Amino acid sequence: MADQRLTKFRELRERSLLGGGQSAIDKQHQSGKYTARERIDKFLDKGTFNELGALAQHTKIDFDMDKKKFPGDGVVTGFGEVNGRAVGVFAQDFTILGGSFSAVQAQKINKIQDLCLEVGIPCIGLNDSGGARVQEGVYSLAAYGEVFCRNVLASGVIPQISVIMGPCAGGAVYSPALTDLTVMVDGTSYMFLTGPGVVKSVTGEDVTQEELGGSTVHTQRSGVAQFRAADDDAAIELVKKILGYLPQNNNEDTPFVPTKDSPTRMDENLNEIIPDDDNKAYDLIDLLGRIFDTGSILQIQEEYARNAVVAFARLDGRAVGIVANNPGFMSGVLDIDSSDKISRFCRLCDAYNLPIITFVDCPGYLPGTQQEYGGVIRHGAKIIYGYTEATVPKICVVTRKATGGAYVALSSKQMRNDVVFAWPSGQVAVMGAAGAAPLVRGKEIKAAADPKAALAAFVEEYRETFLNPYRAADIGQVDEVIEPKETRPRLIQMLQVLQTKVQASPNKKHGIFPS
Ligand code: HXC
After folding, report:
1. Rounded distance from Cα 130 to ligand 1 centre (Å)
2. Span 326-354, mean pLDDT?
3. Which of 95, 100, 167, 196 has the fewest CB within 10 Å, making it most exposed?
């Protein structure tokens, strides 16, 4: 008898390992994707997967659903380790009813979400789903609500990362949008509210899945996803890498990764990197690479709003966040998209205890109707909000232009920056010389015998007076002017001082973020 029970159990378990069956698995492989179990196997350290809910099945009967039951019901859930650190994980199984979302799926995912939050470990979702399971009606909608609610409650407490590894439609896209970071796989993953068929019937628009919600759409245009990877393997490796910069929860320090890069290393090339011509660009990534631990920079939203760079990196082994204006793209100006990019990243760093290091070379906010109609005021305000709200150590380096709004929003003491360094090439001013000329000496220049020469003389005078870091240093708005080559050791020393920083903010339920 005991043997029969064991045999039955083993059969059930065997079935659960097969998902939607061999032909569905073959189809999954043919489309260049791994199955849910294969993904988990590659993601977790060998032998650490502890599965829960493997045999759970739905109990629905509408539309012949009683004949479509599969152990596990389209999602594989459990706990394991990534590089020796505990994580919770769920992987939707497209081979079972297209990974469509059911009440049982939600119960299984909720279990993982709840335990991750209670024990303080990251929760990783590997998504591959056709959205709400139509045959379950409102059960499926309510089930999504249960996941979303937990996403929101866990936000900023434990890292939540979503990997999109197949078509994710309808409700399947909102949970990723509520998590901290989303990774998409090129060519096989899509995110959209409804697929091309429904789009055609509602709007008459002909569009492919790729055009509607492929990985380039969301990493380059919409900003919905922060990363894309070439295939399932690369996406999984990327998530492991990302986890290496994050603490297990908001009460922990970020992980320490020993480095051979000396904390006192100085790079002479930095002294030459800023061109004499103020309007000339330079290679920002090269500049940053000379300061942070060798090979430690990981850009986030690399292809979106390229006028700003945000990245994880390490300084003497400790994870930090970098915000930098990129003079190589739109002169590093701030606009709607870069404001969203920077402010969200500041909040991410603040939530997970990553110090924020800002490199300022920015002519200010982008003017014009396109930006104004799009709400650059409220989007731009997010940067001010994000920096001021953040209580993690914050250090700013003014490398060149810190002009107008860019100075105030990005680098100023008033945004509760702890320390502001400036390079001798730094320029802290209300605006550039060309903009200032008509306001300060407009009439005189016009009336001059040689207006061109008068303008040139003004530019020279303005440059001498304001386009340097010394006026700001006089009044303590810049704490120290440093040689560019000293930047790495200065930052490391300062971070050591700031690592026990405690900063209070007024007690409140929450602020009203200018979104
Ligand atoms: C039930 C579903 C399903 C769903 C897919 N399937 N989506 N079953 N509910 N939502 C089933 C298919 O019937 C099929 O079953 C199997 O999964 C594989 O699907 P295919 O269509 O054959 O695969 P493919 O050609 O790769 O297309 C994948 C897809 C497409 C693009 C995801 O299936 C699709 O467009 N599905 C519907 C997407 C959608 O509009 N979802 C929104 C739901 S509303 P068989 O038995 O034939 O193998 C929603 C609202 C929530 O989610 C709102 C919360 C805020």
Report:
1. 4
2. 97
3. 196
